[in-house]
Design goal:
Elements (H helix, E strand, L loop, with lengths): L3 E2 L40 E7 L5 E6 L6 E5 L6 E3 L2 H13 L15 H6 L1 H8 L7 H8 L3 H24 L8
Parallel strand pairs: 1-5
Antiparallel strand pairs: 2-3, 3-4, 4-5
Helix pairs in contact: 1-3, 1-5, 3-5, 4-5
Length: 178
């Protein structure tokens, strides 16, 4: 089961936190699938890899024929989750690397995986920003902090994730094929 997050007006993690250079985009690899069981017309979905990381983690861009693109986070032993915008999907991937992977299955609709809770405030902030209808200003209010501090928390998570991926690449641990 996947979850689609909605972008709020206070765009989460859009401040100084960016993923410059730590993703590999490939916009020309698309596939098309047809579902013969449907008689309501074509059911094609264009799909490409938006970002590919070490250990078989990736973000796929999926565009249904009648809708806006979704960005699906995929990792081994993870049920997958879809987001409405690439930045939120990339932040989710950064949180995933920051805690060495986690499972949301079994935590319920509003639960937070234990690995996230144990990782500390900055990681929890990053995770909360990937949740539906939860934006930068909401998280800042929840913690009684200014939005700029929330941006710094997110920047720390992104930096740690980037360093983990760089170290993995140095050790020859690249993305795994299907």
């Amino acid at each position: 089961m996947s979850q689609t997050n909605q972008t709020t007006t206070d765009d989460p993690a859009s401040g100084d936190a960016s993923t410059n250079g730590d993703t590999t985009a490939s916009g020309d690899a698309s596939t098309t699938t047809d579902d013969p069981a449907s008689s309501d017309g074509p059911t094609t979905t264009d799909e490409s890899v938006h970002a590919s990381y070490a250990f078989g983690v990736r973000i796929r861009e999926e565009t249904p024929p009648d809708g806006d693109p979704e960005y699906r986070f995929e990792a081994p032993n993870h049920e997958g989750i879809a987001f409405d915008d690439p930045d939120t999907a990339e932040l989710y991937a950064d949180v995933y690397f920051d805690v060495n992977g986690f499972q949301e299955a079994g935590t319920g609709d509003r639960g937070v995986p234990p690995a996230i809770i144990q990782a500390g405030r900055d990681t929890l902030v990053g995770y909360l920003l990937t949740q539906p209808d939860t934006g930068r200003n909401w998280v800042a209010s929840y913690y009684g902090e200014k939005p700029e501090k929330i941006d710094r928390y997110v920047a720390r998570v992104r930096k740690r994730a980037r360093l983990i991926r760089e170290r993995a690449a140095e050790r020859g641990l690249t993305e795994e094929a299907d």
